[in-house]
């Protein structure tokens, strides 16, 4: 089944035109953004890092709010939430006003996340608690840990590679979306008088 068939079955005829228009616009934007990420990975990374810094600021403010508002939590947990909130907020502010720090911070967060994922996969392989074959968990775990370490050691290079891969994927997915647009619905013929 193609996407066009799925859309046609899920949208009334009156909405197909609007769905097509929205998909065309988002695909064109996706192609442009993907090309920008491929051609200029450095500025793309800085923009993503600044958005990451803004998200840290929001997350820090939310944690601080939780520390004061979550009266059902113990005082120790609330204090911990407050301290974590302040640290995350400060990291976000520093990263926002220093794009170089924002890029480094983004790389460290991604690297640590990959390392934790790799360790979790290896643990799943050792304890046989994973739902995937053991060999796959071991391979996935090793690759994730190595990728996390490389991300932390070579942050700018690693993020550029991610920008290139992300840009290529965005262009490919946007083109695929354009190729699978829902078919136009023909207006019913006017009855002859």
Automatic annotation (TrEMBL):
Instruction: Report the InterPro entries cross-referenced here.
Output: Acid_resist_chaperone_HdeD (IPR052712), DUF308_memb (IPR005325)
Query: One of this protein's Pfam families, by short name?
Result: DUF308
UniProt keyword annotations, A-Z = Membrane, Transmembrane, Transmembrane helix
One cellular component term (GO) for this entry is: plasma membrane
TM ranges: 21-40, 46-65, 77-97, 103-123, 135-155, 161-181
Q: Which domain of life is it from?
A: Bacteria
What is the name listed in the Swiss-Prot or TrEMBL entry for this protein?
A: DUF308 domain-containing protein
